[in-house]
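hey so i finally got around to running both of the ones u sent me last week. sorry it took forever, my laptop kept dying halfway thru and i had to restart like 3 times lol. anyway pasting them below in the order u listed, first the sequence line then the structure token line for each. didnt double check formatting much so if smth looks off just lmk and ill redo it

first one:
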Amino acid sequence: MTNVELTPEEAKLLLEVLERYYPSLRIEVVNTDDREFRRALKAREAFMKDMIVRLKEAGA
């Protein structure tokens, strides 16, 4: 496992970036016909959602 330490400002900015990109990713998942690509996008979506939750829990 890799650990990354972020300042509160960095964590807040990262959260903003993830929250801004997440809705676009959802749309891309829905509009993708290729099953393998959709599977990869869904994995990325799950990762991003987890990161958003973790950053919020950490107080970002």
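and the second one:
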Amino acid sequence: MGHTTRSHEHPACAPLSAAQAAALLDNARALQRAAGNGDRPLPLRGKNLGLWCDDDRERSAALFRRAASELGAHVAHIRPNLGEASSLHELHDTARMLGRLYDAVECQGLPAALVERLAAEAEVPVFDGIALPQHPTALLAGQLDGDSEADDRRCWLLQAALVAAVG
């Protein structure tokens, strides 16, 4: 629970500066090398992550679950129960509950304004679609070395972002 990380403040959740992109790529490359050597570090062992989306069978939800699970985290699916019309009280209570149960939360398919409000209230990192193909981190996948599958490269970038935020 430690500190409040708003989604627009964390490098994995917003447009990346050149330095942030370089650091994320360096960490993803380290994870890629470790996987190639058969060494799978578990820096998120014991961490609980929430995946807040309507359908956890979607490709981006599965990618998030894979990235987190391969690092040792447990991922729980949360069905959205808030909307943009939700009261501030409901939002505050939900954000507090998320902060108590999870070390980070990935929101997929929720209105950006709602995710921003949750991120402002929660005391854990709140990601706004970090596993979605249009997220800024997805563009970096092509810069990873080797002939790995696109999903593998995307997974290592997600893992690097998760370790930076949670690990």
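quick thing i noticed on the 2nd:
The chain has one domain: 45-165.
anyway thats it, ttyl
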